[in-house]
Specification:
The structure holds two protein chains of two kinds. Chain A is an all-alpha fold. Chain A contains 16 helices and two strands. Helix content of chain A is 76%, strand content 1%. Chain A has a two-stranded antiparallel ribbon with strand order 1-2. Chain B has helices at residues 7-39, 42-47, 61-67, 70-102, 109-121, 126-136, 144-147, 154-165, 169-177, 182-193, 195-211, 214-219, 228-236, 250-292.
Chain lengths: 308, 294
């Protein structure tokens, strides 16, 4: 009690000394309270039967009913599997790709060529997802570019985006195409931070380029790799659903429908099951958060790198 | 002094260069394809199969159709409003947050920072946010619903705070001794010294607004308020080019619709492609600062 009042009087003194700072911070704090923390409070409708008329607090409690309904529904396994698989493919192919690109760029001796490759590789990142998906839809059509290329190799042309078997490949490959270059920036930055004397010493010792990559370059960027990996794992269930909404159609729900797209459809676009979809969304957030903390612990144990 | 390169190294260098050239082609070809198709005559484009290395019969017809389409024009107008007003407000709020959270004398600095970082990993989700903005704050069907809920990106705030924290404390202290207030210090010293990071923020926030469509689909019902990306979605994904091909026969409609789509892509993408090379060296730096955080 005494401690608290001590703290408060310290805070009051600090406020009187730095009034301007406190007032400048106020709009920022208000923003986060209203637009980030109020929705967190709104999550309690997952445990209620929310009706717009009664409001969040006035609606009746139903406990874990919505969660039970979700776990028992036909959709549960389908969207969980799709979410995890799409994320897993993104992790498996999408995560190492920019690291590899950064390492390869780092080995390019020709400065201008190197900068050209970099500049060009950033371009797709700046193209809107609507345009990217528009291009994918167009290229995937029966007489589109992809089918032409498949034709060169003797394949049959087909409507690629209406076959559930193709969705994951198209989604993952196009995401890598769009983000490969931009994601490599961070690794290139880490690479440029490695002490060049290490390479000189290795040269004197007669180490080959490959050995230098293995013993100097890679260890130099491991902390960065670990941090980004933790973040990725923390967002494993949060697959880029804007792109899926643009690309999918009922034909491919079997492989394309994920938790977020399901929440959007059942909660906003097709029906308004607010409480049920909030519960589904909360399930996703909780798993994400657990994964994040788990990944952080694991990384700390293995490589002594941690996010928090 | 480099040692002579061994055979293996030269082989690797060559293979690497070929691989990187391949990457350039794979990245650029789809864009070139779209550019060529947009400039092509629609009839010849329909008849053409395979790679498109040059336009088939150059014509600006589809650009004329796109640029005279009222939906595209109103979409452009709305998007420009969102980009300009939105980015200005983003900057104002992010600068205020970054400045106050970079001042060591501010006692609430760490707790607030912690609360902000927490929101990066945990959030209420789509539905509670939608209900707040649409039903509680009644911002639905207005462009403000696309601006206000995203005033600050926590990631950008951290980048900017890191950059502000690098400005020497003694410089600010001497201004304080000269009687400058915090506001004056912020706008006259901190902001001018941080122009590179501010340029990055303009790029990140501006491109974000330019490209965003999902919040518009959630909140905007009035067609006149559709931002460009939502109009694009109708044309590109839902394939409705009818409004631009009136008066043509069904066959022609399909052909014209095809090249109109490509022209639409160009019209919506070129502005960004023009500005980004100028800001490249800044955003590379911005991403680097963002990576170092704490």
């Amino acid at each position: 009690m005494k401690e608290l009042s001590n703290k408060l009087s310290l805070l009051w003194l600090n406020y009187k000394k730095n009034k301007a700072i406190y007032w400048m911070a106020l709009p920022v704090v208000l923003y986060f309270l209203v637009f980030k923390y109020l929705p967190m409070y709104g999550v309690i409708i997952a445990f209620k039967d929310y009706s717009v008329g009664k409001g969040i607090w006035g609606s009746d409690w139903v406990g874990l009913q919505h969660f039970r309904d979700f776990f028992q529904s036909y959709y549960f396994w389908r969207i969980l599997k799709n979410t995890l698989l799409l994320s897993f493919y993104q992790l498996l192919f999408g995560f190492p790709a920019p690291i590899l690109l950064a390492l390869l760029l780092n080995e390019l001796r020709h400065e201008i060529f190197k900068r050209t490759v970099q500049t060009i590789s950033y371009i797709p990142h700046f193209i809107s997802i609507v345009v990217i998906c528009g291009m994918i839809v167009d290229f995937s059509s029966r007489d589109g570019l992809f089918n032409t290329i498949i034709g060169y190799f003797g394949g049959q042309s087909s409507a690629l985006l209406s076959d559930p078997a193709n969705f994951r490949t198209i989604y993952t490959a196009s995401s890598i195409w769009q983000e490969l270059g931009f994601s490599s920036i961070i690794y290139l930055a880490a690479l440029s931070g490695i002490n060049p004397e290490l390479y000189d010493a290795a040269n004197v010792d007669g180490a080959s380029r490959l050995r230098q990559v293995w013993h100097i370059t890679l260890p130099g960027i491991i902390p960065m790799i670990m941090i980004l990996l933790i973040l990725r794992i923390g967002g494993l269930m949060e697959i880029g659903f804007e792109k899926i909404i643009l690309l999918y159609n009922p034909n491919v729900y079997d492989t394309a429908d994920v938790i977020s797209t399901f929440v959007y459809r059942k909660g906003i676009s097709e029906s308004a099951e607010f409480s049920y979809t909030t519960a589904v969304g909360l399930f996703q957030s909780v798993i994400n958060f657990t994964l994040l903390i788990g990944a952080n612990r694991l990384s700390k144990a293995i490589s002594n790198t941690k996010l928090f | 002094m480099r040692m002579k390169r061994s055979m293996g190294e030269r082989l690797f260098g060559g293979a690497n260069a070929i691989l990187m050239t391949g990457l350039i082609i794979v990245t650029l070809y789809p864009l070139l394809h779209v550019l060529n198709a947009s400039l092509s005559d629609s009839g010849q484009l329909m008849a053409h199969r395979g790679l498109l290395l040059f336009p088939k019969g150059i014509t600006m017809e589809s650009y004329k159709l796109v640029l005279s389409n009222p939906n595209i024009l109103s979409g452009y107008r709305n998007t420009i409003f969102i980009v300009v007003v939105g980015t200005a407000l983003n900057l104002l709020f992010t600068i205020l947050g970054a400045y106050t959270l970079s001042r060591k004398s501010f006692m609430l600095r760490n707790p607030i920072m912690l609360a902000i970082v927490f929101t990066m990993f945990f959030n209420g989700g789509i539905i509670p946010s939608y209900l707040l903005i649409n039903n509680t704050l009644h911002m639905g069907n207005s462009l403000w619903a696309l601006i206000v809920p995203g005033l600050i990106s926590s990631y950008n705030l951290i980048i900017m705070r890191t950059s502000f924290a690098e400005i020497s404390e003694s410089l600010l202290e001497s201004a304080r001794i000269d009687g400058a207030g915090e506001m004056l210090i912020l706008w006259r010293i901190v902001v001018p010294l941080s122009m590179p990071v501010i340029a990055v923020m303009i790029l990140f926030y501006g491109v974000g607004h330019w490209n965003s469509w999902f919040s518009a689909i959630l909140y905007i019902r009035d067609r006149n308020l559709f931002p460009l990306q939502l109009v694009l979605r109708e044309i590109l994904i839902q394939n409705s080019t009818d409004s631009m091909t009136t008066g043509a026969t069904a066959m022609d409609k399909e052909a014209i619709g095809e090249s109109v789509k490509y022209a639409t892509v160009m019209v919506a993408t070129l502005p960004i492609l023009f500005i980004y090379p100028f800001l490249q060296k800044y955003f590379v730096k911005g991403v680097m600062i963002g990576a170092i955080k704490e």
